C-alpha cells in the first residue's frame, strides 16, 4: 500500500468516527505535519510516518524467495536510534506548524509488510523504552516501561502516538507529556477506547512495571536493583525479545 492510499483510508475511517478531517498543505520551504482532525471542539495535529523496508533490503528479500522458495529473517525488538530521530523530526514539524499549541500533537506510525509487526513493536519499544523482564520465582514475564531511553521522555511536546501495521492498532499516551491529563480525557482517546496504551493506568496490573526513576538508562544493573527493591522481588533479569519470521513462496 502506498502512503497516499493509506491517508485516504485514515480519512475515511476517522470521518466515520465523527472527526472532521483536513489535510495540511505542503510547504516547499518548511516541512509540515500531514493532517489535522477535530471533534468536540478539540484539535489534533498528526504527522504520518510510513515505514517501508529499504529498497535494497526489500529486493534481497524478493530475490531470496525467488531463488530459495523461502526467506527467514530476525530482528531485535528494542529502542532504535533511527526511529527516535524520526520522532524528533516529527516534534519539530508539529511545533513549527502550531507554535501556540492550540492542538494536541501526535505521530501516526504505520509499518508496511513485510516485517510490519516487527517494526510496530520496535516503534513501541522506542517511544516507551520498554523491556521484557523475567524472574526465576514467577512464572510470567513483565513489561517494564521506561527501562531504556524513551522518545516519549525526551519529546515531551508529543502527546501520543498511533501505531498501525495493517492488523493491529494502538493509541499510545505519552505520560511525560505536558498535557497528559488533558489528552487522556480527549475525544480522540475516548474514540479509541479498547486500543489505548496508558502505562499509568496499566501500572496496577500484574505483569507491568514502571521504571520511574532518574537512573541513567545505560546502567542496566542499577535499574534492575531499583526494580527489585520497588516491587519487592528476589530476582529479576532482562529477557531481550527477537522477532523471527519465515516467508514461503506461494506455490499457487
Descriptive terms for the model:
252 residues, 29% strand, alpha/beta, seven-stranded mixed sheet, 13 strands
Structure in words:
This protein has one domain. It has helices at residues 3-16, 55-68, 81-97, 116-128, 151-154, 180-184, 187-191, 199-202, 220-231; strands at 20-23, 35-39, 42-51, 70-77, 104-111, 131-135, 138-145, 160-164, 169-173, 196-197, 208-210, 237-238, 241-248. It is globular, with a radius of gyration of 20 Å. The mean pLDDT is 90. With 252 residues, the protein is α/β, with parallel strands linked by helices. Strand 6 and strand 7 form a beta hairpin. A seven-stranded mixed β-sheet has the order 1-2-3-5-8-9-10, sandwiched between helices. It has a four-stranded mixed β-sheet with strand order 11-7-6-12. Strands 4-13 form a two-stranded antiparallel ribbon. It is 35% helix and 29% strand.
Question: Could you write a compact summary of the structure shown?
Answer:
Helices cover 35% and strands 29% of the residues. The protein has one domain.
* Total helical elements: 9
Low-pLDDT runs: none
The helical percent reads 25-40%
Order of helices and strands: HEEEHEHEHEEHEEHHEHEHEE
**What is the first-to-last residue Cα distance?**
22 Å
Order of strands across the biggest sheet? 1-2-3-5-8-9-10
What is the SS-derived class?
Answer: alpha/beta
Shape field: globular
Assembly state here? single chain
> Could you give the count of β-strands?
13
